[in-house]
Sequence to fold (63 residues):
Amino acid sequence: KQLDEKHSHYMVITRLFDVARENAFKSSDAIVEYLTKNNFPPIETVSEFIVYDTHMELDKGWI
Fold:
């Protein structure tokens, strides 16, 4: 089956815990590099950092 690139979108979400900011950026860069090499270059990247999470129970099922 061929992808319809004009009408397709993809999203990659990574959630990292207990890693330093520098390591989070390295991980993100590696993902972008991998996707780009495999013909899925990102159109946009967004990074968000949470320093303290008071509702970790909301992450159940994601991780």
User: Anything to note?
Assistant: The chain is about 25% helix and 0% strand. The helical segments are 21-37.
